[in-house]
Amino acid sequence: MKLDAILWDYDGTLVNSVPKNIDITKNILAEVAPHLTGDNLPRYLRSEADYHYANHAAKNWQALYVDFYGLSQTEMLQAGSLWAKHQEINQTEVHFFAGLEAVIGHFSEVPHGICSQNSQKNIRRVLEQHGVNGQFKAVVGYDDVPAQQQKPHPLGGIKCLESILGTVQSASLLYIGDHEADVQFARNLQAELGDTARVISVAVAYSHSTPELWEHKPDHIARKVEELYPIIQQHL
Question: The whole model's pTM is what?
Answer without folding.
Answer: 0.87
